[in-house]
Amino acid sequence: MADVFKKVEPAEYYRRHLTHDARPDGRQLLAFRDVVVSVGTIGTADGSALVRLGGGGTTVVCGVKAELASPRPDTPARGYVVPNVELPALCAATLRPGPPTALAQTLSQAMADLIENSGCVDAGALCVSPGRLVWALHVDAVCLAHNGNLADACAAAVVAALRDTTLPAITIDDETGRVRVDSGRERAPVAASAFPVAASFAKFDNDILFADPTAEEEALATATVTVATLEDGSLCLLHKAGGSAMTEKELQQCVDRAQVRGAELRHLVNKVAASKEC
Amino acid sequence: MSCLKQSNLRGFACEQSCLTRSDGSATFNQGETTVLAAVYGPVEVKLSKEHVEKAAVDVIYKPKVGIPGCKEKATEQLIKSTCETVLLVALHPRTAVVIVLQEMQNTGSLLSCCINACCQALMDAGINMRCLVCAVTTTVDQEGHIILDPTSKQEEDGKAVLTFAFDSKTNGVIMTTTSGIYSSQEYQECLLSAQHASAKIFEFYRDSILKKLSRVS
Amino acid sequence: MLTSMLTSITIYLNAMPLDRMRIPGPEDSKPPFVYETPSGVDVSNLVKTNGCRKDGRKADHIRPMFIKCGIISQAQGSVYIEFNNTKVICGVYGPREFGKREDFSMNGRLTCDFKFATFSCKQRRQHQQDAEEKELSQLLLQSLSPAVCLHKFPKAQVDIYVIILENDGSALSAAVTCGSLALADAGIEMYDMVVACSARKYFNSILLDPTAAEEIVPMKTNESVDEGEMTVAYMPSLNQVSGLILKGEMHTQVCAQIMKSCLEGCNLIYPVLQQSLITSIRKSLSNVDLQGSKEL
């Protein structure tokens, strides 16, 4: 019966739930889905992470491939970080094979902004020889299952993969200029201490605020907000693209909830990374 | 052409109906930053973009130099959903409203200038809107001071740049996007001062329309 | 004048096939392993004197498998398979309407899309499908379509999407196995499941289910090499072969021999697939039961 109601009147179905501080999947309004993070899952990548929200509802796997390139002339001592989000036709029924959709492009840009703003990659670690050789990190996040809130899942996967990324030691012969990769020496991490965590919220009927929307909820939402926080409580991304207007109080509520969420996720990722080392 | 001079905002200027072949157009200046916006619509829509219950809003953003890439696409999406919010899209189902934005000159606060130009062009086109929208860019400098409507230099030197778009009815935040690192207190301060400045911009909107209409009559 | 301008523009565009839909990286970057000094690892010695391979398997052993069905929430059918380090995910959508407007057909249509994730191989892959991936998509389609009852869904198509998350050899055979299991998981009617297995001839032994290091590397010599690799897609209940691809050159007798090994490998994998399908159906049935009792 409930299934029929949901199909025929999806908005009313959600309205009845949300006005009682409950969601169809059993969560409270400001509750996030459970997160599963595993790092170092892809052996062929220099760093990788898999993030699953709500028992596999949304799954994103991110792999980092490090390559060597010559730097841009205007930034001789800076390496490249090239994040891209792929939404293959595999992850949702609405997608077909082809060039990246507008959503994929927006997400890619959001990941680039997140990495740039937060400074979560150690710029010095990417420079091998100023003006001659730097590392280019290709950070590719592939969405395997799309059930809403890709921004949070992608951000978590990208940051966890970058924290897992290590680079081989490189020596350059001063006389001959020959580059040699020392596979014997210990690999160096690239991540800086900054650890941004994104948290997304949505608004329903212009007034009910809830966290971590699923795909169904995203389709019905009148606005969505993404907030990225750092450990010290500062913000590095606050993105709301259109949709119903929000007051500063509501935005503050999102920021406060995002801080709590950030602490939880940071603890989880650090725990996973520590257990991998053991 | 009407102008606005404010101590904390740069000089604003706007000229509507500057293009002859579009349904509505406007050039918007914030200091030296200039954006030209043209609106076509409601027009026929491509089958792939058609919505049964509303008009599709399509924003095309053209940078001054170079071919548009991912960054421009993200900007387009941002402006698109902002315009979608203020337009009464349900009045024109199975059609499209196409907005073309051309960056003419950028000396800071480009995104807010784009949105303001959009709103002026939409007004000029006479498409039904729920309310008006205006955008304000702010920046937080290294000492934590807030600068409204910054220049490119101020944007580069500051630690964060925050852009807000407000609706004219409730003065709520329709769009917000940020770059750089800032505290949540700084965010609230920026929001409040931007909100305060938005009232001035809406006043400027009214004046410019009044001037235009008085000229017509 | 105009023509010359146009040609110059075309040349310019051809010279810069930049992907504007993605964040651009450096124009030219090299993987670090090209700078590595050749290490002491002997590539030629794949089988140790005691008859074991590098990962400790005997020549006729397949790698341990991990299979999970129903991994993609939005897909009709989906399967994740690991053959040790080869990791494959497959999603099946449909039967749904034709993607493009096409002529009416009484038979349904099958499409396959095969992609290596950019980070799945030693050398980074590009985002766009390259020639090898297009060829593998075709091979996948040809191996799977004989098993599907296409007449059961006229005017509709079934899409099979395969992504290799990590490639440690035998990617095609893993994709075929994964694809057919995903079709079964989606409830698409089939004559039989398709199981695929690869084998490589290495001197006097036949290495079943080769890893990336054991896969054949094409050599540019004019001499005849008595080496090769075969992938066979096989429908065990019907005892029919739906796909076969051979690389290298071998004697006909060796060919027959290596094919026999592949079929033996398929027969080893088949019961595992059946078992995982039963487990997945049991699980979904128990969920239905739970929901039913809730509504009562």
UniProtKB/TrEMBL annotation, chain A:
Keywords: Cytoplasm, Exosome, Nucleus, RNA-binding, rRNA processing. Residues 32-168, 195-259 form the Exoribonuclease phosphorolytic domain. It holds the Pfam family RNase_PH. It is found in: Cytoplasm; Nucleus, Nucleolus. InterPro entries: ExoRNase_PH_dom1, ExoRNase_PH_dom2, ExoRNase_PH_dom2_sf, Exosome_comp_Rrp42_subfam, PNPase/RNase_PH_dom_sf, Ribosomal_Su5_D2-typ_SF, Rrp43. CDD domains: RNase_PH_RRP43 (cd11369). Belongs to the RNase PH family. PANTHER family: EXOSOME COMPLEX COMPONENT RRP43, EXOSOME COMPLEX EXONUCLEASE RIBOSOMAL RNA PROCESSING PROTEIN. This is Ribosomal RNA-processing protein 43. It comes from Priapulus caudatus (Priapulid worm). The gene is LOC106816171.
TrEMBL record, chain B:
Belongs to the RNase PH family. It comes from the Eukaryota. InterPro entries: ExoRNase_PH_dom1 (IPR001247), ExoRNase_PH_dom2 (IPR015847), ExoRNase_PH_dom2_sf (IPR036345), PNPase/RNase_PH_dom_sf (IPR027408), Ribosomal_Su5_D2-typ_SF (IPR020568), RNase_PH (IPR050080). It comes from Priapulus caudatus. Pfam families: RNase_PH, RNase_PH_C. It is found in: Nucleus. Keywords: Exosome, Nucleus, rRNA processing. This is Exosome complex component RRP46-like isoform X1. Residues 9-127, 132-195 form the Exoribonuclease phosphorolytic domain.
From TrEMBL, chain C:
CDD domains: RNase_PH_MTR3. Transmembrane segments: none annotated. It comes from the Eukaryota. Keywords: Cytoplasm, Exosome, Nucleus, RNA-binding, rRNA processing. Residues 62-189 form the Exoribonuclease phosphorolytic domain. The keyword RNA-binding applies. Its main location: cytoplasm. InterPro entries: ExoRNase_PH_dom1 (IPR001247), ExoRNase_PH_dom2_sf (IPR036345), PNPase/RNase_PH_dom_sf (IPR027408), Ribosomal_Su5_D2-typ_SF (IPR020568), RNase_PH (IPR050080). Pfam families: RNase_PH. It is found in: Cytoplasm; Nucleus. Gene3D superfamilies: GHMP Kinase, N-terminal domain. PANTHER family: EXOSOME COMPLEX COMPONENT, EXOSOME COMPLEX COMPONENT MTR3. Belongs to the RNase PH family. This is Exosome complex component MTR3-like. The lineage of its organism: Eukaryota, Metazoa, Ecdysozoa, Scalidophora, Priapulida. The gene is LOC106821005.
